[in-house]
Amino acid sequence: MEVVVADKCGFCPGVNNAIRIAEKILADHEEVYCLGPIIHNKDVVEQLAEKGLRTVDDVEQIKAGATVLIRSHGAAPEQMTRLSQKGVNIVDATCVLVKRLQQIASQMQKDGYKVVIIGDKNHPEVQAVAGCMSEAIVIADESDLHKIAENAKLGVVCQTTQSPEFFSSMLCAIVRCSFSEVKVVNTLCKEAVKRQESAVELCRRVDIMFVLGSLESANTRKLAELCKKYNKQTFHLQNWQEFDIGIGFGKKVAGVTAGASTPEWIIGEFVEKLKALDRPL
Q1: Catalytic residue status for 31
Q2: What is the pLDDT of residues 184-207, one digit of tens each?
Q3: Whole-prediction pTM value?
Q4: Which CATH architecture has domain 97-184?
Q5: How far apart are CA 272 and CA 245, in angstroms?
């Protein structure tokens, strides 16, 4: 089978940085805590766990005086305060674009805006941003628009991994509401947008499209969602172990992309094994 890999796919700079920091501190410590999975990829989390990275869900699970890694999605100020009170050594691996989003949202609130975050309220990045202010409105779709008070002064930002298409559609919905003023700052990650554009371009010209990455990864799900829109033969798989040879019957050209939290070795293994199917199935 002919296999074409998207020009932009796999680890982004923010994820690369978080993994690099984790490996560096693990070389000096037998055990390091991480407040939530460092990235949304089970294989990577398991590899780092073998080296001593212990993932926990709450600050209370962390020993006093321990070393704690703040994952790429960031943490809310309240969590950082609680960590400081425990006397832990904090190593911050928050993505610089997530930090920028936190700073922009916080400044908007200081300037008197009601902050609207377009994104998934359950995503750790959004929760960390919302935690930076006394009150934030999270809008996932038009059913959430009732949360916006009439004649409010709105400051609008977006979860970094959303698509420009989704961001713009939600902005159109928001400006149909009653407001006195609206300020919008584009907080989308350019690396995520490049991956989306590359994936869509590729999926349009192949028989079948594979999107590799964790089902829990927001940016990977967004890639799969966009590709499915333009190529119904799109499949979101975590790795080669989930591949079903039956879905490739009759397909000659396959496209492959991967989320920003998918390591190169998963992409490489998938591509090589797919190429080994050297005839139409």
Answers
A1: no
A2: 999 999 999 999 999 999 999 999
A3: 0.88
A4: 3-Layer(aba) Sandwich (3.40)
A5: 14
